[in-house]
Amino acid sequence: MGTRTQPGPRERLLAAAQELSYQQGVNVGVDALLSAANVARRSLYEHFGGKDGLIAEVLRRAAAEDLERYRSAIAAAGDDPRQRLLAVFDMLDQVVSAPDFRGCRYLGADLALADQAHPAHAVTRQYRQALHELLAHEVERLDLPHPAHVTDQLMLLVEGTLATGAARPTSRPARDARELVQHILG
What we know:
Blueprint: H1 9-24, H2 30-37, H3 41-48, H4 51-76, H5 81-97, H6 105-112, H7 119-141, H8 147-167, H9 173-185
Helix pairs in contact: 1-2, 1-4, 3-4, 4-5, 4-7, 5-7, 5-8, 5-9, 6-7, 7-8, 8-9
Organism: Phytohabitans flavus
Protein name: TetR family transcriptional regulator
InterPro entries: Homeodomain-like_sf (IPR009057), HTH_TetR (IPR001647), Tet_transcr_reg_TetR-rel_C_sf (IPR036271)
């Protein structure tokens, strides 16, 4: 008879925090996190040094997953950089149209955490920088004038799509953003 290994306290805390911090925001209570993970308070401090460390690690983990989603959408669109950039907004249309979409977890964390020294802010900055670089790579392949400005515009449309998708769930902002991207790219 095989034995089934259950995830350890660290993984259970990460899974619970990733779900609850997205559903309820990063200010979700410690007791709710501990209860959902079925771990003792001591585990939180042993593995993450406290809730701040857990939230930062959850954002780091989510960022890796989200960046992979962007990379996959870009790669699946073929070799044409225009089509690859438009594919980002096709993917975002699916994301913001999902019934469980609650907005951009990185923007939510930045808005909820007033202390600029909170370790989550470093993670959200790194995430945005990595996404910016991913988009910039495709923009540079287009040989457009002012590629840094174009990339900044695309980032604004990505973040605006996610914010609008949360605030007005039936609006389909990614479709409008995609149309704007077509104009920006010429």
